[in-house]
Structure formats: structure tokens, C-alpha cells
Amino acid sequence: MMQGMMMHRPLLISDILEFAASAYSEQEIISRRVEGDIHRATYAQTRGRVSQLSHALVELGVGPSDRVATLAWNGYRHFELYYGVSGMGAVCHTINPRLPAEQIEYIISHAEDTILFLEFTFVDMIEKLKDRLPSNLRYVVMTDEAHMPSSTTLSPLCYETLLEGHPTTFDWPELDENTAASLCYTSGTTGNPKGALYSHRSTVLHAMSAALSFMNALGEGRKILPAVPLFHVNAWGLPYTCPLVGASLVMPGPGLDGDSLFELMDAESVYSMWGVPTVFQGLLATIQEKGRAPDGFCDAVIGGSAVTQSLIDAYRENGVEICHAWGMTELSPLGTQGNLPAGMASGPKAECDAFKLTQGRRLFSVQMKLVDDNGAAVAHDGVSPGELYVRGNSTISQYYQNDAATASAIDADGWFGTGDVATLDARGCLTITDRAKDLIKSGGEWISSLDIENIAMSHPDVRQCAVIAVPHEKWGERPLLIVVPEAESTADLAGILALIGKHVSSWQVPDDIVLTDRLPLAPTGKISKKDLREIYADYVLPQ
Ligand code: ADP
Q: What are the angstrom distances between the C-alpha of 96 and each of 90, 276, 299, 307?
């Protein structure tokens, strides 16, 4: 085979920063700090601080491939750590502070972190855990001297003091592009959390694919707000994609409630916000209260859980178009985008609405296949469900030091099993119909909990809901609908069931509805089906 005669330059994260600092030097990272004020820095200024940070890391003795952990909100210092740690050849390990203490302890030990950078808001939490963490772990509080905690047993260093006096340029090492760059543990809905270890190459390619597929949202000069945390799958890659396309980042800090988001978005004219449905529900309440969307807000990318028709409609009424996205930690994470195919928008509204509820089409380099219970290929006919398997340049080939989890996730041909059940149509449009771990199989037939949740959510008495399987003597499993009502006293249970009955077969209608005042959330903000299944494990369905 004749070889091409082109240069081979490694794909490196440090190149994204260098590129943004020169090509888009005036674009900004605007952060609501935990200290309370708003901080602004251009990409050019940020390159200077990132360089200082990398020098400081070298001085602290951080070497190639050392794991440097972060426990932080979305803010400029966290962004600096993304680039400063990975750029000099170490691994940026983002930790989800919402995880239970035992899981935080587990992943710090499993990752063998050497330094933990943390916001002062997490100092108390880590102090309580300190005796169970590795004794050689060092701590840096991500603030200035004025805000350093006065008394703590962590003996931490101060982030701003660490940076002081270092040069504002860094001679980035020319790493092999397959060098590990960052590490993120999945929130572990089953068993211990599992680590996805991203490389420089996988990260750059993911950012490039995302930039292409989300062109509607991203663009030079636009302001993008990641409501999805930087500790959750690298905020879906936005800290890499935004500098790559010249978009500014608006970082909300810990303020993810509707009022805080509205205020920040309004002040900064944020064009697009990305996050899970729960955060958008909160923002919607503020929008409805004020009778308008934040200034300049036009575009929303929602993933992590299925988007409902009612959420799409409510945002559209306020001038905001929702793009549905599907992904997984193991995919870096973006797998699909739900923008309408060219020409569809001018066609029938019903067709557009139906398409918007699907998870959309794949990103470049994400390949998909469906497999049945026996491992046989399932047709991409838009109706036959199968378990979704994926491969691509930004998909894990194995979990970090976890052979058992790898063995159960990667098939003989090297594809990654997502645990999601889906259909694919001829043009590759993905519809998640259920999760393998969350499937309701009644009398040998599938019931889609997502379908039923979508329908139930369109009933005016339903604020939030979830469908879970409960064991049934005759049918194996039957669906139970758990509802957070708008008002308990007036919730029309028979009406909700009748509405569902209009859209699905009679045997697919939930056997019962229970009302509750809140649904348990997993650390990522999604409804925790695992907890619900435990709570209602002994629930007795009506005969
Ligand atoms: P993230 O929450 O960032 O998508 P996780 O790895 O925590 O990543 O969760 C991935 C899982 O979340 C998927 O396997 C799928 O079950 C579910 N999920 C993600 N996006 C969607 C979506 N748009 N619709 C339905 N389920 C989704």
C-alpha cells in the first residue's frame, strides 16, 4: 500500500490552548467564583496562568502520568487545571463531589492521586475523610490567601500563592498523542465507580467532532454555559470544544438553581446552555415566573436523560430550541446530536416533533451496532430494539485498572456495550427505548419506561415521574409509575393512567401510581432508578 506523504503531528490538549490564545485571544472565560464575585479572563490571559500552574506543578514534583485530582465547581481555576495538568504530561482526575464519601475515598485510592486541588467549600468534607485517604496525598485550596480556611488539618497550599512568580509561558512537552490526559469515574449506579482514562488524542478528536456536530450552538464569539459540571465527563468536552471554536465559556460555579442561572445568563447574554433535564426544569420555573427567557438565550443542549416533549415545548414557547444529545462517560461522552436533518424543519410539524424526541444522529467517529440477547445483529430498521454497542476514537477500550468491568463491557470484537436498549433507523438516528439495567420485561415483552415517562410528563398534574419494574408473580415484572404531582390533593391518577392508555398497549399501562414529594437523584442529578427500585422493592401491586 502506498503511504501518504504528510506530516504526523501529535494531537495534544496544549495545542488547543495555544491555538485559542492566539486565534481567539479576546474570547473569555467568565466565572461566578465561589468567593462570590464574577471573574473574567481572556484565553490569552488564561494561557499565562495555565503556564504558571504547570511550572508550579513541576516544582511540586508532579511527574509524567502522575494523577492530580480536582474537587471543584465550574470555574476558571478548574479550567486551568484541565490544561495545566494534562499539558505538562500528568493526568487530571476530576472527582464528583456529589458521590458518597466511601466512593470518593475509593476512587482517590484507586487512581493513586498524589495531589488534590479543592475548592474551600469542600475542605470540611475532605477533612472528615482525611484519615481514610492516602497519607501522602497533598492538598491545594483553589483560592487566594484572603480566602484560605483559617484552621484545617489538611495543611493545604494556596492556589494563587502557588502560581505567583512563575513564568507565563511553558515549553509544552511534545507528548505521544496516546498519553493519558484525564480520568473520570462513572458515578457507579452499580458496584464501585469505574474509571474512563482519556488520552490527548481521544480528547482532541472528541472536541473536533463535537464542534462539527453542534455547529448550531457553538461558534466564534458565542457564550456557552456548561451547567453540566467539569467533574462530570469533562463537562461534555466544552472546556476543549469552546476554545477550539472561539466561543467564550460562562462558568456558573455552584449556582445551578434556576434563579442563579437566570441572573448570570441574563447579565452575560449566554447563547447556549448545556446540561441535564433537571437543571433545565429549574431554570424553566424562573423563566415562567419572570415571563421571559434570559437575554440572548436561544439554544439548549440537553442530555444525560431523555428529553420530554413538554420540556421542548416549554422552551420553544420562550424562544429556545432544544437539541437532544446522548452520551456516556465511556464515550468522552458525546455520542449523538438531535438537530433536525436538513429540510425537515420545513416539513410536517409532527415529523419534526417526533425527531426531536429521538437521541439523534451519531457524531463523526462514533460507530453503532445493535445486538439481541443472543449476541446476534439487530436490523437498523427504526423499530427493532437491541442493546447498543459503540466503537470510536473517543470510546474507552478498557476501564482503568478494572479487568472485571472491562470484560463485561467490551465484546469479542472490541465494541463497548452501553447497557442502553435502542433502535437505529436507516439514516442512523438513535432512539433509546430503555436501559438494559432498567428494562421492564412483562410476559416476555418489552415495556419502555421512557415512553411511559414521556407520556405521563405531558399530563398537567405531573411535575416529575419515573417508571420502574416491580417483581410480579405472573408476568415476571410489571411497571410502577412514581409521580411527583403538581398538587397532591388534586392529582388525577385515573386521568394519568387513561392518558398513558391512549398511547400504549393496554398491557403496557403501569399497574399502579404512587405519589411522592421528591424522587431520589443520582450524584449526576439524574433520577436514581437504583434507589427507587430499592425503595419500592416490596411494593404490592393491586390485583
Ligand atoms: P451522561 O450522564 O453524561 O450522559 P453517564 O455515563 O453518567 O453520562 O450516563 C450515561 C447514560 O445515561 C447512558 O448510557 C444512558 O442510559 C443515559 N443517557 C444519557 N443521555 C441520554 C439521553 N439523551 N436519553 C436517554 N438516556 C440518556
A: 19, 15, 26, 23
Residue 194: which residues within 8 A CB-CB, separation 6 or more?
A: 185, 186, 188, 399, 400, 402, 405
Confidence label for 189 from pLDDT (cuts 50, 70 and 90): very low
Mean pLDDT of 290-308: 94
Q: For the segment 58-67, what is each residue's pLDDT rounded down to a tens digit?
A: 999 999 999 9
Domain boundaries, the chain: 13-337, 366-436, 439-535
**Contact between residue 270 and residue 31 where contact means Cβ atoms under 8 Å apart:** no
Question: Could you list the active site residues?
Answer: 186, 330, 441, 446
Instruction: Kindly report, residue by residue over 205-242, the tens digit of the pLDDT.
Output: 999 999 999 999 999 999 999 999 999 999 999 999 99
All three cell numbers of 348, joined, read 410536517
Superfamily of domain 439-535: ANL, C-terminal domain (3.30.300.30)
Cis before 333 (ω within 30): yes
Looking at domain 13-337, its CATH architecture is 3-Layer(aba) Sandwich (3.40)
Tell me the β-bridge partners of 38: 32
Q: In what order do the strands lie in the sheet with 138-141?
A: 157-158, 138-141, 115-118, 67-71, 91-94, 180-185, 195-199
Q: Ligand 1 pocket test: which of 228, 305, 334, 396 has the largest number of ligand atoms within 8 Å of its C-beta?
A: 305
What is the distance in A from the centroid of ligand 1 to the CA of 322?
Answer: 16
Please tell me what DSSP assigns to residue 362: E
Which residue reads 439514516 in cell numbers? Answer: 427
- The residues facing 376 across adjacent strands are none
Q: How far is the CA of 275 from the centre of ligand 1 (A)?
A: 11
Q: Which three cell numbers stand for residue 227?
A: 451547567
pTM for the whole structure: 0.86
Inter-residue contact 327 to 236 (CB < 8 Å): yes
Could you give phi then psi for residue 68, rounded to 5 degrees?
-115, 120
Write the DSSP symbol of residue 60: T
Atom of ligand 1 nearest to the CA of 232: 3
Residue 496 Cα to ligand 1 midpoint, Å, equals 26
Ligand 1 lined by 522 (C-beta under 6 Å) = no
Of 1.20.58.480, 3.30.1360.40, 1.10.150.130, 2.30.38.10, which CATH number belongs to 366-436? 2.30.38.10
Specify the amino acid at residue 357. Answer: L
Rounded-to-integer distance, Cα 407 and Cα 411, Å: 8
Q: Are 10 and 175 in contact (CB under 8 A)?
A: yes
6-42: b (≥16 Cβ within 10 Å) or e: eeeeebbbbbbbbebbeebeebbbbbbbbeeeebebb
- Return the C-alpha cell found at 130: 482525611
238 lines ligand 1 (CB under 6 A): no
